Amino acid sequence: MGNRYLIVGGSAAGMAAAHTIRKADETGEVTVLSNESHAPYFRPMIPYIITGKKSASQIILNGSGVFTADTINILTGSKVTSVDPAGKRVTTGAGDIFDYDRILFSSGSRPYMPEDIENLGVDGVFALKTLADAEAMAARSETTEHAVLLGGGILNLKAAFALLEKNIKVTLVVYSPEVLSQLMDPEDAYLVRKALDEAGLVIKTGCSARAVISDDTGVCAVALDNGEEIPCQMICVGKGVIPNLDYLDGTDIRIDKGIVADPFTACSKGDTFAAGDVAVTHDPATGDKTVTALWTHAVEMGICAGLNMTGKKTAYAGTMGIMNATQVADEPFVAMGVVHTRDKDLEVHTDRTDHYFRKMVFSPDGSRLVGAVFVGDITRAGLYRYVIREKMEVERFKNHLVNHTLHYGHFL
Ligand SMILES: Cc1cc2nc3c(=O)[nH]c(=O)nc-3n(C[C@H](O)[C@H](O)[C@H](O)COP(=O)(O)OP(=O)(O)OC[C@H]3O[C@@H](n4cnc5c(N)ncnc54)[C@H](O)[C@@H]3O)c2cc1C
């Protein structure tokens, strides 16, 4: 009998690992346990389920890119409730038992629902994480005139645009002084903010929700901590995520804000591995331990874990704690590495225009690039990422970094 590979969670990291294992070990048995009811799908596309531009069957993972191998046993509706790393056995909520030779923890994260907001459990309150959430939001949107979104991060901005597209009025309630506060300093978000205002999003900063008000239709208003009450028929909470770790309670797998993975994606117990949003890895820009929340990183780490699980020792390059490349309201932006620079001992160069914003952040002695933010024009961002990730000494081409004239030849 071949090796038995067990994977907890069938999303970016888990499915990338499963397919990598399948290709590297043809005789092994690969089983993916997923607690979702849908077959694995491309999570970043779920906003299109809200708008109706895509159906569930159009965003499933099998058959594209790295997700092409078959003969992987995917069991949906299977929630892992406990793991015995010594006995190499897991148990599911339904009482099923699976023995394994090697296991991957790729259980990702779930939305954080703040306990200090009263009455969050009523109908019409969502957090956009799963395909099922998107389907439920799509259904509720049919009777929604006004949606209030709590939190100004990238996921809520995606939800906001999906709802705006359906001609629903959207108000964003943001505790921070500006949107995207995790990804840039408030004064650096001016172009994004302008684009959001022009798109018709109502943004209230510096306040937060205190309670959800409901009637027999579910949510009917939200009460803010500044005394304001906003009538609405839908709320979406985007207050960050927490790792899915409960099934590891009582084990001696090392946890520190996530499952701690070594540079070869292995956990603290033999034959256990971790990848994706649930894993703690290293940030090549800062050297710090970090968790990330990006599909591409989860896939890269999942592939790496898959190789390591089949005995092909492969180091993982790490992920930048802050790294995001996306677009809101037609305004593309990239934020990576050290991006918050207020009152910090760093060398910072900014280029602020009406069409684009660029920020280059260097180490205090100016010898290394440690972070960058691009809004409006993201050309060459990949080169900057390379320079940060490889911790390059930049003296030779620093003026090109600052003046945005860097090209690949400068590395040769
Ligand atoms: C709306 C939205 C838009 C996004 N857009 C982008 C984007 O544009 N670009 C980008 O790079 N990233 C984007 N992301 C982030 C990206 O989707 C995540 O970083 C990525 O999905 C992480 O993959 P993962 O495999 O680590 O974990 P997850 O995708 O979180 O999957 C983990 C899976 O494990 C399951 N699970 C958890 N516990 C158990 C258990 N006990 N037993 C069995 N199964 C379990 C979960 O239900 C889930 O299916 C977006 C995310 C969302 C929600």
Can you describe this structure?
The N and C termini lie far apart (49 Å). The protein folds into 3 domains: 4-110 and 242-309, FAD/NAD(P)-binding domain; 125-239, FAD/NAD(P)-binding domain, CATH 3.50.50.60; 338-411, Enolase-like, domain 1 (2-Layer Sandwich), CATH 3.30.390. The chain contains 8 helices and 26 strands. Helices cover 20% and strands 28% of the residues. Strand 2, helix 2 (47-51) and strand 3 (73-75) form a beta-alpha-beta unit. With 412 residues, it is of the alpha/beta class. It has helices spanning 12-24, 47-51, 131-141, 154-165, 190-199, 295-309, 381-389, 398-403; strands spanning 4-8, 29-33, 73-75, 80-84, 89-92, 97-99, 102-105, 109-111, 125-126, 146-150, 169-174, 202-205, 209-215, 218-224, 229-231, 234-237, 241-243, 259-260, 272-274, 279-282, 289-290, 323-328, 331-337, 347-352, 357-362, 369-375. The protein has a 5-stranded parallel sheet, covered by helices on one side. The protein has a 5-stranded parallel sheet with strand order 9-16-10-11-12, covered by helices on one side. The mean pLDDT is 93. 41% of the residues are buried. The protein is globular and about 65 Å long. The longest helix is centred in the C-terminal third of the chain and has 15 residues, at 295-309. Bound molecules: flavin-adenine dinucleotide. Flavin-adenine dinucleotide binds next to helix 1, helix 4 and helix 6.
